[in-house]
Amino acid sequence: MLKRVHGEPVVLEYERIISHTSGESNDEALACMPASWQAGQGMMPDRLGMAQTDFVALIDFHFPGLKVDSLDQPGREAGQSRSDVYYDVLKLLQNYCWTTGPAAARVKTLWQ
Questions:
Q1: Which class for 75: exposed (0-12), middle (13-18), buried (19 or more C-beta within 10 A)?
Q2: 44 in Cβ contact with 75 (< 8 Å)
Q3: Where are the domains of the chain?
């Protein structure tokens, strides 16, 4: 998914994020989004367009132990013009989401 050129900041950030993976099927895709912020790439807004509490719950579920404050966010707040992206991410996560456990149930409700 992520173009890997050894030593590039985006690759190092991706590897740092994915080292906390919970093993969910969409962890790799999700890790690419905030990793791309490190290189000034991508168009996703801060917190992937979510409320802070929802974003923290998402990161905690997919990357236990990763401190949300350590993610280099792009400084783009979500606006009405980004609602199309929000719904694309929502659809992606719903199609490849978690299936079991109390944490899964809690986080899954973020998308319903």
A1: exposed
A2: no
A3: 9-111
